[in-house]
Write a structure and sequence with these properties.
Order of helices and strands: EHEEHEHEHEHHEHEHEEHH
CATH superfamily of one domain: Aldolase class I
Structural class: alpha/beta
CATH architecture of one domain: Alpha-Beta Barrel
Strand order of the largest sheet: 3-1-2-4-5-6-7-8
Largest sheet: 8 strands, mixed
Shape: globular
Strand content: 5-15%
């Protein structure tokens, strides 16, 4: 029988018989969910990934049978889905998130894997009364038992205070991130706040980013930004520059209409918009550029990246700006968190989880220039 592969049609569900655990029994910190790519890399489920052998970041998610109490419009874990599927079976960023005992996850990482070496682990919080305390438990145990693999926290600012960030740093977390996602107050309110009966507040998320800058310091914090939720290129890049100016990095995500979410009928991000934002984000974060030197048209689309033409061409030819952005691995400007196919399928890759080949770069160039806007090229 052929080995299953992550594809571009729908999330594929892989479960070994011993992982068919009843939902009420799956509760952190005893259990954690993980991305399909992480589960394949650990050898917990069968499968292979298109053009990449593994993921270099072990993405873990706290889990409870009650689920997340927030109701973000674009999220597969949102509260409104609680009648549709058992929480632990819901898709999230395109794929299923299998559940396993934390004991076994740690044992497999310590034993090593023939599919690759993790460069980072990330604990993702959700909106739940136990999420804070269980994150502390997971973090403390990881840094004690697997100190060679650094830990990031993908936080839930709605439930956190500044002292919690201090405690996470003391327990060994070396990077702290905030999933701001929606970059304008209006979009945030419509997709994450009162507009969808959800508890999150834009100002609380920015407060957490400011705390992170203070507690963790430069290069040790970041923010997730989703491109394609109704913002302009100018708006998302202005936020990216603000975060970089504070000393942080920007982890860009392309909007993908999650099956079962309130925004499942929203169109996926425009390819040209996405490629220009990816390139400009990289220039801001790693190439010494600045938002103030960029130029935009009346619709907020970038028309000039603010770099000499030769330098811009060299960045595009390198392909690095179009790779998945996230917490760093061995190279500062290449993410350990390569999230294979988290925002697209392998037939039309938006965030490349591997180094681009010439044919990939040629396609990226066509996508950048897909409109009358020449994007400074």
């Amino acid at each position: 029988m052929d080995t299953p592969m992550i594809d571009d049609v729908q999330p594929i569900r892989f479960y070994r018989p011993d992982y068919r655990i009843k939902t009420p029994e799956m509760r952190s910190p005893e259990y954690v969910q993980m991305s399909t790519a992480a589960a394949i890399t650990l050898g917990l489920i069968p499968g292979r990934m298109h053009r990449t052998a593994c993921t270099h970041c072990l993405n873990l998610l706290v889990t409870y049978p009650e689920g997340c109490r927030a109701n973000c419009a674009y999220c597969g874990l949102a509260r409104h889905r609680e009648e549709a599927r058992d929480y632990a079976d819901r898709n999230f960023i395109r794929v299923d998130w299998p559940t396993a005992r934390y004991d076994e996850v740690i044992e497999r990482v310590k034993a090593g894997s023939d599919r690759g070496q993790f460069e980072r682990m990330c604990i993702s919080m959700i909106t739940h009364p136990d999420s804070n305390d269980d994150t502390f438990v997971l973090l403390e145990r990881w840094t004690r038992e697997v100190p060679q693999v650094p830990v990031s926290i993908l936080s839930n600012p709605t439930t956190l205070e500044k002292d919690d960030l201090l405690r996470m740093r003391e327990l060994g977390a070396d990077i702290f991130t905030v999933a701001l996602d929606a970059v304008t107050p209006g979009i945030f309110e419509r997709t994450r706040g009162k507009g969808v009966d959800s508890p999150h507040k834009y100002e609380h998320y920015w407060r957490a980013i400011e705390w992170a800058a203070d507690v963790y310091g430069p290069e040790k914090f970041g923010a997730h930004l989703i491109c394609g939720m109704g913002e302009t290129e100018r708006e998302i890049l202005e936020v990216a520059q603000r975060i970089r100016g504070m000393g942080g990095h920007n982890h860009m995500f392309a909007f993908f209409p999650e099956r079962g979410s309130l925004m499942e009928d929203w169109p996926a991000v425009d390819r040209g918009q996405w490629r220009r934002v990816q390139l400009a984000r990289y220039i801001i974060d790693y190439a010494g550029g600045h938002f103030r030197d960029m130029r935009f048209d009346e619709d907020g689309r970038i028309t000039d990246f603010g770099l000499p033409q030769a330098k811009l061409e060299a960045l595009i030819d390198a392909g690095t700006p179009f790779r998945t952005s996230g917490c760093p691995g061995k190279a500062d400007d290449v993410s350990a968190c390569n999230r294979p196919y988290g925002d697209s399928g392998p037939t039309d890759i938006l965030s490349f989880p591997f180094a681009l080949k010439k044919r990939d770069i040629a396609k990226v160039r066509r996508q950048i220039d897909d409109e009358d806007v020449k994007a400074g090229l």
